[in-house]
Amino acid sequence: MKCDRCDKKMKIAKMRFNSHQIDGGTCSCGQRYYHPEQAERILLLNKLKKQDVIAKLGRIRSNLILRLPKDVEVALGLQEGENVHIRVEGSGFRIVQTH
Ligand SMILES: [Zn+2]
Prior knowledge:
Elements: E1 11-17, E2 20-26, E3 32-34, H1 36-49, E4 56-60, E5 63-67, H2 70-76, E6 84-89, E7 92-97
Antiparallel strand pairs: 1-2, 2-3, 4-5, 6-7
Helix pairs in contact: 1-2
Bound molecules: zinc ion (ZN).
């Protein structure tokens, strides 16, 4: 990977980004590179932590389904077909990712 500022080869490194570790690189000129999708995911995660996420309940045959917004899928790296655990707490529930 080449530096977009000085064209030298950048050193691949784990970069600190908003108190998370992501892939990236550093150059001797001081330029830094952050993996764009990983950085975007961290920003999304931080945004979602500051607000309530509205998820709509739907139904497929006899099953009630929970429709999660795209931002939640991307921020948490959720995959279709993946199992999540539901913990009933107080008057509601919390969804826990197990991977
Ligand atoms: Zn450079």
